[in-house]
Amino acid sequence: MECKLISRYSPLLVLFLASLVNAQTVSDILHPNYDDPSSSLKYYDIAKALTLGCNITKEGDYELSWSKDGENVSEIDSLRDRYKIIKEERKFIISRALESDAGSYTCSVRALNASRTFNVVANVIVKFESTEIGKTNMVEGEKLSLHCVAFGTNPKITWTVGNATLSTSTEHIVLEEDDKGVENARLTIESVLLSDYTDYTCEARNNATDITGKPAQVTITVRIRGKYAALYVFLGIIAEVVVLCAIILICEKRRNKTEIEESDTDNSPDQHKNGHNGNSSELRQRKN
C-alpha cells in the first residue's frame, strides 16, 4: 500500500524538488547590485546617475533584458533617450535620474527563465519654498507659514521646533499635507508669540535614508519682534532728533550772544573819545 502511494505521488515530488532546484539556480545565476539585498532595494540621488547591474554567473552568451513596472524600458516614453544599456557590463544606466524614475525594475534572461527585481527608491531632499533660508523676521501676532518641499520616494516629514520634535499638530502649531500629498509638509502658526522665536527644522526620511542613516534636513531661524518694537524705535529716533535740535539751538544762542558782546565792546564810549582826541591832534599838526 505504501509503495503504491509513493509511486502515485512520486511525479509531483519530483516536480516540487525540481522547482526548488530551479529557484535556487535562478538566484545563483543573476546577481543584482542591491544596496539592501534583504529588501531588494536600490536607491539613487535625484539629478545624479542611477546604475543597475545584474551580473550573469552562468557561462554562455545570454541576452539580458530590462523592464520597469512590467514594461520594457525601450517602450517607456519618459525614459526615451535618457538611458543606456552596457551589454558587456550587464548594466542599465540613467545618467541624470529624475524623481519619477523610481519604481520596480527587472533584469531577465529568457533563455534561462531567470529574473531578478529591483525596488528602486529616490533619496529624499528638502528645501523651504519662497523663504530666505537661515532667517526670517516677523512681528508678534502675525501668521507664520512654512512649506517644506520634499523630493524623493514617499518622504515622511517631522519637524523640530526648538527642542521639541513634532509629527502631529498641536494646539498652537498646525501640520498639514501639501499639494503633492506629503504629510506634515506645511507648518502654520496663526498668531506667533515672542516664545516662537527659535529654529525650525524640517526632516524627511524614506526607505533609502533608513539604510544610509542620513535623513534630509533644512533649518530656518524665525525671529519675532514685539508689537510695539517698531513704535519704540520710531519714538527713539524722534527723541534723538529733538535732543539734537535742542543742542543746535543752544549752541546758536551762545554764539549769537558772544557776537553781540564782542560788538558792544568794539563800540564802547572810551573808544569814541580816544578816536575824537586823536583826530583833533591831527588837525592841529596840519595847521602848524
From TrEMBL:
Q: Where is the stretch described as Disordered?
A: 258-288
Protein's name according to its UniProt entry: Putative neuroplastin
Give the organism's phylogenetic lineage. Answer: Eukaryota, Metazoa, Ecdysozoa, Arthropoda, Hexapoda
What does the entry give for GO biological process? Answer: axon guidance; dendrite self-avoidance; homophilic cell adhesion via plasma membrane adhesion molecules
GO MF term list: cell-cell adhesion mediator activity
Annotated signal peptide: 1-23
Pfam families per record: I-set, Ig_3
Which domain of life does this protein belong to? Eukaryota
Q: Which UniProt keywords apply?
A: Immunoglobulin domain, Membrane, Signal, Transmembrane, Transmembrane helix
The record's annotation in PANTHER family points to: BASIGIN RELATED, BASIGIN, ISOFORM G
Return the GO cellular component terms, semicolon-separated: axon; plasma membrane
Q: Which InterPro entries would you find in this protein's record?
A: Ig-like_dom (IPR007110), Ig-like_dom_sf (IPR036179), Ig-like_fold (IPR013783), Ig_I-set (IPR013098), Ig_sub (IPR003599), Ig_sub2 (IPR003598)
| UniProt keyword Transmembrane helix, yes or no | yes
Residue ranges of every copy of the Ig-like domain listed in the record: 37-119, 140-221
